[in-house]
Amino acid sequence: MKTPDDLKFVVKEKYGAIASQNEKCCCGSSSSYSIFSESYSHLKGYTAEADLSLGCGVPTAFAKIKEGDTVVDLGSGAGNDCFVARAITGSKGKVIGIDMTEEMLERANQNLSKLPFENVYFLLGDIENIPLDKDLADVVISNCVLNLVPDKLKAFSEIFRILKPGGHFSVSDIVLEGELPDSIRSAAELYAGCVGGAIQKPAYLEMISQSGFKNILVQKNRKLELPDELLLKHISKEELRAFHMLDTGIYSITVYAEKN
């Protein structure tokens, strides 16, 4: 059984390798399939060099960011969501990216150095212990990162702490609906490491509520289909046929909630 520190080490190694190798992939996998990610190219502020296709949604598009807001992006990677958020907040706002992987921070700062922004910052930090003062942010965003955090309740509690009263978050993440057969879950984990940390959708939403948030809203719910040809590398045709008959699956959700 891996400890929380073991899991964090694995995540840091995976994402450090991605940042260093200049490759695009989905949720830490080196697979050529990027079915979890969604396009940002239509959004103002999109920076192609900062988009590593690591997400599972576009939380920035749902986050109700306003000009002048202070926005915090948890698991900011190469800076994609931060640069889109900066296009909305403008010069009067502030955007802070938090990531625990040094290589990602280096890459984000390289991308930032090519842009004329003086109010975007990238900090090294753990989402379970965010290195920011309380009541700081108007908006918190995150894209397919919280599912990788061992203590999700602590992470949501930290989001609550750093948000101003009246602030809110919008995060995209991976959740499960129904119990996946072990063979399917193992195949999915081989394909995309982010699935390994995914929990049931009701439990995920309950953690948000337990952290003190109100007005919780699922802004988007998208079923993620793993290609049959991929699954057949790890399971039999009979197992695949049985799986397709089940009312279960892996979902990308974008969730909004407020700190009153």
What would your notes on this structure say?
Strands 1, 2, 3, 4, 5, 6, 7 and 8 form an eight-stranded mixed beta sheet that branches. This protein has one domain: Rossmann fold (3-Layer(aba) Sandwich). The N and C termini lie far apart (38 Å). It is built from eight helices and eight strands, in the order αβαβαββαβαβαβααβ. The protein is α/β, with parallel strands linked by helices. It is globular, with a radius of gyration of 18 Å. α1 runs parallel beside α3 and α4 crosses α6 (201-210).
Number of structural domains: 1
Q: Bin the helical content.
A: 25-40%
What is the CATH superfamily label?
Vaccinia Virus protein VP39
| DSSP, total strands | 8
Which value, in Å, is the CA radius of gyration? 18 Å
Sequence of secondary-structure elements: HEHEHEEHEHEHEHHE
Oligomer: single chain
Which word captures the global form?
globular
Residue stretches low in confidence (pLDDT < 50, at least 5 long) are 28-33
Mean pLDDT across every amino acid position: 88
DSSP strand content: 15-25%
Q: Figure out the total of helices.
A: 8
Report how far apart the termini are: 38 Å
Described by strand count, sense and barrel closure, the largest sheet is: 8 strands, mixed
List keywords for this structure.
260 residues; alpha/beta; 8-stranded mixed beta sheet
Per-chain topology:
Layout: H1 4-21, E1 70-74, H2 80-89, E2 94-99, H3 102-112, E3 120-124, E4 137-143, H4 152-162, E5 163-177, H5 182-191, E6 199-200, H6 201-210, E7 214-224, H7 228-231, H8 237-244, E8 249-258
